[in-house]
Amino acid sequence: MEKSNGEVKEEFKAPSDGSVCGFDSLHRLLKENLKPQHFQEVSRIIHGLNCGKALKAITLPKSAAALSLDRGFDLQAFSFNAEKELLREPRIVRVGLIQNSIALPTTAPFLDQKRAIFEKLEPIIDAAGASGVNILCLQEAWMMPFAFCTREKRWCEFAEPVDGESTKFLQKFAVKYNMVIISSILERDINHGEVIWNTAVVIGNHGNIIGKHRKNHIPRIGDFNESTYYVEGNTGHPVFETAYGKIAINICYGRHHPLNWLAFGLNGAEIVFNPSATVGELSEPMWPIEARNAAIANSYFAASVNRVGTEIYPNPFTSGDGKPAHPDLGLFYGSSHFSAPDASSTPSLSRNRDGLIIADMDLNLCRQYKDKWGFRMTARYDLYADLLARYLKPDFEPQVISDPLLHKKSS
Amino acid sequence: MEKSNGEVKEEFKAPSDGSVCGFDSLHRLLKENLKPQHFQEVSRIIHGLNCGKALKAITLPKSAAALSLDRGFDLQAFSFNAEKELLREPRIVRVGLIQNSIALPTTAPFLDQKRAIFEKLEPIIDAAGASGVNILCLQEAWMMPFAFCTREKRWCEFAEPVDGESTKFLQKFAVKYNMVIISSILERDINHGEVIWNTAVVIGNHGNIIGKHRKNHIPRIGDFNESTYYVEGNTGHPVFETAYGKIAINICYGRHHPLNWLAFGLNGAEIVFNPSATVGELSEPMWPIEARNAAIANSYFAASVNRVGTEIYPNPFTSGDGKPAHPDLGLFYGSSHFSAPDASSTPSLSRNRDGLIIADMDLNLCRQYKDKWGFRMTARYDLYADLLARYLKPDFEPQVISDPLLHKKSS
Kind of enzyme, top EC level (chains A, B) (predicted)? Predict the structure, then answer.
């Protein structure tokens, strides 16, 4: 796999299992291969652009485009639609997502690896800043390789306190660009026995730490088991009220849990970020579905970020795919994108390259769609509060109506 | 719009609002316009056929194909993948979904309209029977035009008791073909003051009525309001244990509610049917998302059925789209399809024509994916039981962490 500087390193080769296809972007593939009217029709279905609506492209400053060209990262920007209201001004927020591969082989000294990622991200964050991004979100555990597949404990050394060097690195950009930044790190909780968590730190636009959220749902997928390193979060479902709107973070595997998405919605989130690290063979067909479903069901924006590239480890391991031990988890397929409450979504960033995707979203769209579709009004939460309470009991009996003729032979 | 017999009737013309595109099937459009290797790659993403898996086409008996040709209905059949297990035999069930337009203008005498639908469905049900379908599901309120957009009360005359003539019509097929049939009707509950419900009747493979489920979530979308006719169902979330597996029915608008899908899963459903009647401008971009998300999140199969065509009413009405009064709700876009717990899905039936789609599914796949992805094990239902109980209280306060510098001016 080619790195953003054009240099080819053995550590980033594409897996040879045949499951990963060669194209870089579904959107571009279709655009290049379909007639314009067919492309438009397919986009209508795939990206939810009904009723003659169109995602407008945003013109970014030349400096951002120049950084993208110079550093070889994908750069895309769109604007979602919303109605003008009579009593509220539009509340347009510019949101950015950064996806990236790691910068050095996993065999390099840890501090070098981390610093090299900082260095690699700097121009991409600058491009976001130059573009006037208000809220920026990085991928899950962006400050390290996603080493949890190895089950080796030494990777814990990457963990930092919430106010550690990765946070400090980002705080200066938050101040410089008046930007809220969501930073998903491996956290070491010094004051509670040095335990480790998977944590998103929310940095305010003045560089202050507004708070943190710890990953609620921890994957056990086959023999891939992140609870080797950290367990289920203890921070509930906080919504962070920032200068640019109410935001929440559903970390990675939590996107498979509709209840997790729901809880952030009940607490008032207008944008829910899903910083992820997930590979093609496992989850790629789910990736365009789950966050978008959450945006529809909860009448908020969803922002999906996934890392890029294949990370090779020194010692082979098994990773839940039933294959013999091998040195990589698979291809992190990027494809970061946004989904909106009106069921529309942006195209995705590249499957293979670092990238920055930007969207302008009028947060008024959330309430407009609550009013239009009435999902909260028709939700009957009382039924489900009751069901879940009953389900928790050891003697729960499912509501099953059996055919009394079940064991009668057919005539 | 062309009827299945080739005759063109004014009542079935496509709307002229520009929102409805001309293609009949996304799958066929892509297949015809992309190079084979591109088509395969796009299918992998769109239909979730990862890891070299492929949906196998099923060879149906010639009699079924002949009926499809003769009557002009779309006929497609697929087989989902599952692993062989060591301790359980495969539990392969053949499931069919029928989508159709109405058969006579809405101005025809009501009994004629209903009988004409019976007549039109007969050969399609015969094709399902000839194909060995075990469980068949029809679309929402299949025995009438979907007149709830008119807000006129006279359409209530279509309502029937659970054991009414529509049930009797289907019972003979259930017996003849040893088939479970899910029949979504407008129900009149004689024993409770003749009140009306939106109800799915489950007919066992011996022709017996196993039970009924009443639509849990009733749409109010803009000024489209089905609660003019019936209110929220009072039958909970029953799972019906049939000769061919445990099934449940999430009627139409209930598909927008992840909690509704969840509840059927908690009660043990292996296949959840979503008989629907929904139009292009409102919901088409959500249609490929929601049932598929439910199949993934709940580790069961989902089966989506939507009606076909544009139904013209005698008196114009407004229908939530903000346009002046007009005589139709819009195009019911068909597109019936299946989704599986492994995130794969079949292509969809035609957007414009009547159709029968069939899939073989090994119900063992449900538990295989529960075991693999561990969603139930990692669900933390206790958190959500508690949250929903608190949310119901009038003094619920969302979990919000405000930036203390929220109102500080930027330097």
Answer: hydrolase
CATH code assigned at A359: 3.60.110.10
Identify the pLDDT of residue A5: 37
- The minimum CA-CA distance between B172 and chain A, rounded to whole Å, is 13
Q: Is B285 close to A256, i.e. CB distance below 8 A?
A: no
Asked if the structure places residue A171 within a domain, the reply is: yes
* pLDDT, chain B, mean: 91
Name the domain boundary from A13, A37, A54. Answer: A54
Residues A375-388 have pLDDT tens digits of 999 999 999 999 99
pLDDT tens sequence across B122-132: 999 999 999 99
| A91 has a pLDDT exceeding 70 | yes
User: Is the domain of A154 the same as that of A105?
Assistant: yes
Q: Give per-residue pLDDT as tens, A269-291.
A: 999 999 999 998 789 889 999 99
Q: Which residues contact B74 (CB under 8 A, 6 or more apart)?
A: B68, B349, B350, B353, B354, B355, B356, B357
Task: State yes or no: is A252 an active-site residue.
Answer: yes
Residues B120 and B28 in one domain: no
ipTM for the predicted complex: 0.92
**B35 and B67 housed in the same domain:** no
For A376, what's the count of Cα atoms within 13 Å in the CB-facing half-sphere?
A: 20
CB contact under 8 A, B381 and A392: yes
Compute the distance between CA of residue A304 and CA of residue A154 in angstroms, rounded to an integer. 29
* Distance, CA of B404 to chain centre: 48
**Are A122 and A259 members of one domain?**
yes
Interface test with B, best of A249, A262, A378 (most B CBs within 10 A): A378
Q: Which helix (H) or strand (E) holds B276?
A: strand B271-276
| Average pLDDT score over residue span A163-191 | 98
* Mean pLDDT, residues A290-305: 98
Residue A105 Cα, gap to closest chain B Cα (Å): 27
Give yes or no for a contact between A158 and A185, defined as CB atoms under 8 angstroms apart.
Answer: no
Q: What is the mean pLDDT of residues B187-214?
A: 98
pLDDT at B5: 37
Which of the pair, A291 or B8, is modelled with greater confidence?
A: A291
CA nearest to A267 within chain B = B398
Taking CA–CA distances from B398, the nearest residue in chain A reads A267
Query: Which pLDDT value is given to residue B203?
Result: 98
Among A42, A261, A398, the residue with its CB nearest the CB of B268 is A398
For residue A247, is it within any domain? yes
- Could you tell me if B231 and B261 lie in one domain? yes
**CA A55 to CA A47: how far, in whole Å?**
9
- Does a structural domain hold residue B404? no
Please tell me the total number of residues recorded for chain A in this structure. 411
Number of domains chain B is built from: 2
Same domain, A71 and A50: no
Q: Give the bridge partners for B249, in sequence order.
A: B273
Closest in A21, A343, A401 to B286, CB measured: A343
Query: In angstroms, what separates the C-alpha of B137 from chain A's closest C-alpha?
Result: 17
Residues A298, A324: Cα–Cα separation, whole Å: 41
User: Residue B80 sits in which domain range?
Assistant: 55-373
Report if residue B398 sits inside a domain: no
According to DSSP, the β-strands at B209-214 and B195-203 are antiparallel
A18, A39, A54 - which closes a domain: A54
Same domain, yes or no: A35 and A157: no
The reply to whether B35 and B118 lie within a common domain is no
Please check whether residue B206 is in contact with residue B175, taking contact to mean a CB–CB distance below 8 angstroms: yes
Structure tokens at B156: 């209530």
Report yes or no: B354 and B24 within 8 Å, Cβ to Cβ: no
Q: A360 falls in which pLDDT band (50, 70, 90)?
A: very high
How far does the CA of residue A120 sit from the closest CA of chain B (Å)?
A: 28
Question: What count of CB pairs under 8 Å joins A to B?
Answer: 306
User: Higher confidence at residue A355 or residue B32?
Assistant: A355
Which of A3, A114, A120, A140 is flagged as catalytic?
A: A140
Q: What is the pLDDT of residue B45?
A: 75
B-chain residues within 8 Å CB-CB of A261? 258
The pLDDT assigned to A50 comes to 53
